[in-house]
Specification:
two-stranded antiparallel ribbon
Length: 179
């Protein structure tokens, strides 16, 4: 039976498998309903692909995070706000957008690096250039950013959320269907 909403009958399905030959059928029919097989679609702001492609999801989340950052850029670049308040804006507005659905991600080192690069870009904008007259390089290095940013970094937050979610699932028990 198709998933119903007020205006639409959803008539698409996806087969998620690492096996390229899985579900070769291009369509399915149940009763009077026909379902089209697709390779990817967006569900609850998460991009699902037939091969469970995390790189595409990471790209999508980072695009959303950039858009979110640019929407608050005027207030976050204001000299009237303290750095602590700017960090709170990052942690409460931007970071949740980037990490939405991260509990199910299994990331490669390259994908982790992309998340860290995004966070460092935002933090460099928050903390601004180094104010040292002796140094020629005005850009803050990653180690200096880590020292200035006392909160857990984006990868640590992702791992903490993942562990919390795993604990939640483990405590559900056998009576929950499908788990």
């Amino acid at each position: 039976m198709p998933i119903m909403s007020r205006k639409h009958t959803y008539s698409k399905y996806i087969v998620m498998s690492r096996n390229q030959k899985a579900g070769r059928i291009h369509g399915a029919r149940i009763g009077n309903s026909t379902f089209e097989r697709v390779e990817e679609f967006k569900y609850l702001e998460t991009t699902l692909t037939n091969q469970n492609s995390i790189p595409e999801e990471i790209k999508s989340r980072l695009r959303s995070g950039n858009a979110c950052y640019h929407s608050v850029q005027k207030i976050s670049s204001s000299r009237l706000l303290s750095k602590n308040l700017k960090i709170k804006i990052y942690r409460t507005i931007i970071l949740p957008v980037v990490l939405y659905g991260c509990e199910t991600w299994s990331l490669t080192l390259q994908e982790e690096r992309k998340l860290k690069v995004f966070e460092n870009m935002v933090l460099r904008r928050i903390f601004g250039p180094r104010r040292d007259e002796v140094m020629v390089d005005w850009r803050l290095h990653n180690e200096e950013l880590n020292d200035l940013y006392s909160s857990p970094n984006i990868l640590r937050v992702k791992n903490l959320r993942r562990m919390r979610w795993a604990g939640h699932v483990a405590h559900m028990g056998e009576e929950r269907g499908g788990v």
